[in-house]
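Hello Y.,

Per our agreement to keep a running log of every chain we model this quarter, I'm adding this entry. I've kept the format consistent with earlier entries: sequence first, then predicted structure.
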Amino acid sequence: MAHDIPVLDLTEWEGAGPEHRAGIAARLDAVLRQTGLFLLSGHGVPEELTDRMRTEGRDFFGLPRESKERYRVSRPYDNGWRGLGALQVGALDGKPDTSDLHEAFHVGPSHRTGDAAFDTTYYPENKWPDEQPALRETVLEYTGHMTRVAHEVMEVLAGVLDLPADFFTSRCARATWTQNVNWYPSLTTLGEVQPGQMRVGPHTDFGTLSLLDRQPGVGGLEVWNEEDGWFEPPFVPGTLVVNLGDLMSLWTDGRWQALRHRVLAPSDIAPDEELVSLVYFFETDPDAEIVPLPAPAGGGAGSQDGMIGSSLTRLLQRPWLCTAADGRDAQPV
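Predicted structure for the entry above:
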């Protein structure tokens, strides 16, 4: 049922004996087979840091447009700022004419391999705003925690499947990831919303897992499964939403679902509501060869014919669009 979304306490998992762990694992496995998400507590991310991250991000979006233009995303896979209407995530759901109602600031890892072409493709430079020096320090501290948490969750997921603890993380030593700060302006700020527009259109994430620190709202997150259709997941203060992406669904050969989700448009019920979401998208090493798991860990969807390939190869094929509202021709991002 819609409200059967478990909360995993990382500290409880770490201290649990075999029988207790088996019970936790069974609940996680069940919800990941049906929906593809759970809530996470005991993650050790300081509340003060999360608040600071949200405040610094919101302050960036408040800069004059001409200032933000200096940090604009300039190619399909890039870090930096995307303005209002720059994405059409709804194109994944067959609605390519409705641009998303949010601004985003993207940050990624600073890994370097010594291969300049490889590094430029998979680890694009971050664009830190000169006008806001505290943003860089805050983001680096926050993403350090997010990377730690992602590895810890991947170890839990390996345990749920009765695999070695490092089964997933051994392919994530220099993983690609993207930290988004998403600003969802109010209806008052926007003035109007076109029919079918949303803050983020329906989609699944392409990577292994995403970590979301959300704010509840009338125009907030909705998720989908076959039994319940669209529903709002429970909001528990202090928890992170963990949702699985396409790569993890393929890696488990269909055992687990990639979460289909969306963020609703601002509503005239709450015209002054604006939200700031912190979303960390985690993948694998860009050149990792990911082979779908055989039974009994794998779900038997029949993907074992070949290797999935790298997470970034999949990213570069993703049919998200930049629109004319972004000031350039449509292109995959």
